[in-house]
Records
---
Amino acid sequence: MIRRLGPEDAAAYAEIRLEGLRLAPDAFGSDTETESGWPLEKFSERLTSNTVFGYEEDGRLLGVAGFFAHTSLKRCHRGVLWGMYVRNETRGRGIGARLVEAVLAYAREHVEQVQLDVSVDKVAALGLYERCGFRRYGTEPHTLKIGGRYFDTHQMVLIF
């Protein structure tokens, strides 16, 4: 089941978020070292200040995807899909697609376009986003640096 997460989900969200940061460090702009030191209130605040959807089975979060809309006058027509992660053991079941669809359904009510960044090495994620209607409009070299290794990202957009 997909639902919007709220502050009461902070502990479950923190668990899956930290797992994602640990297992797929090149998929996120943040890092385990930073967020593992956060108090639970910080994760709760994130769930209040952003729109985060979770896919849940038997009371366990198996995937998450976040969205925020820009608020400045010149950018308020744009939103960002961020923090997408599906647990390794549940991949290939369509959970990622359902999460992206939930974000896009919400976003259509608030913005005119959604953008995201995806590591060029994340072939499955890139394919998912393309199947959902996103198109690449650029590639940023050396977006992330992890342990002396650089990672490039594709910028993608879906215009409604």
Note: The longest strand covers residues 135-146.
---
Amino acid sequence: MKTLMTTLLALTFAIGVPMAALAMSHGSHGTEKPMEMDHKGHDMTKMGHNMAGDDASFVEFGTSSSEGVKATAKIKAYDAATLAAMEKMGVAGTHHVMVFFADEKTGADIAAGQIALKVKGPDGATTEPVMLMSMGKGFGADVSLKAGTMYTFELGSKLEDGVKRKFSIDYHNH
């Protein structure tokens, strides 16, 4: 029994070390973008889209300040191919919204906390709150918006300082 255990341990070591070396030699060495996950755990980078709000397809549409913190909102409309891929995964949304927070005095990014978003339409109806996911230096979520409609994004936050703040930013979906 002792010989069998020793043989199995040696075999595991003999196979495991070369496999680990092979995996490290084929790694990205930090050059690839990190995987972006949607709220249901789907890998959005497989669709070729950076969801962290730093690519050129995002448009800044407004800011709001509350108790020393500035919220900056950006939005990206999904193209037809992305919408089709999302539909196959069971993910709904026509746009991806990102919100970035910064200290108004220092300009320092605030990237930790909990953010909830409600979208108010022109009829005054408000969606159920959606929790925004931490994504890089901001927070993001998918939303469904109709063309030619004015919306108000109502954000409730509890950032890393523990203070609850509310922000309101208008968006016209052209």
Note: Residues 113 and 160 are 5 Å apart (CA to CA).
---
Amino acid sequence: MVIIVTGAIGVGKTSVCRKLIEIALNQGFTCGGILTDKATSSSLIVEDISSGKTETFASTDNVYDGPRTPKYSFNPRGIDFGLQAIAKGVSADILVVDEFGHLELRGEGFARALDIIKAGKIKNCILVIRTELLPAFLPLLPPNPLIFEATLENRDQLPEEIANKIIKRKQ
């Protein structure tokens, strides 16, 4: 099952995923993959869900020689770290990839995860995709994903709602 968590920038999509992971682990599920989050006002980190280890992923300062977007320069080590965490997470009950964005649309960043997901070898996959990028990603994914939009109003209840879909599927 492919589940997409979408929503505007800053609405709490990563927080929804963190809480969902906590619920899933408490229900006996294994979780793997990555979370991305702000480390400072100018940098992002990528976290390996299974180990809790982190690596700097990107910076608004032009300090990395990896891919670039108008806002960030990306750390090649951070991308490799994330790809390794995703590869480890393929065997988990739930693989989380937070988040697909402009890099992946260009075939960079964590784009290889798209091939893994399309291959259908994952039990459950949670993908975080910003609302404005969702139309570009849908043709790249398996058909009929479940889509949940995180908002300021529902972000506290949304993890439980998503977890219930996964738990019901396992029964």
Note: The two ends are 14 Å apart (CA to CA).
